[in-house]
Amino acid sequence: MSAFMIRFLDYNNNSNPVLCLSAGDTAEEAIQSAVEAGRSEGKDLAFLPDYDCTAKEITEDDLSEPNSLEEFQALPSERLIYMAENAELPYSKADFLRLCKGDVKVAYRLYTCCEWQCPETVLDEDSLQHEGEQSFPTCH
Question: What is the pLDDT of residue 45?
């Protein structure tokens, strides 16, 4: 299964494109999954004649790799920064901030601790440590 960046553009509405992440074995499966998820979230991503839809497989080249707290802070929230080994979709800066309750320094520290595993796993393992030995106590 691969991760894809899906871009929907409505020519009638001239609005900004709707971007989303989706997973599938093919671009068509990823698009269908995005459409189904869009419907469940109240967005109308139905295939209409006036819609243009493209899918691009996400590769390591599409991920930003901030090497300092300053670089992390400068990235837009939606920027993709990490792909866990067993994850279907990559993580954005916003995902790390959400996991760390908006604390930028803690989010960057969590990002630097992720070598292959999902950041949620790092936090779960950290929560099993004794109080005072946890690296991310504010995230639990």
Answer: 55
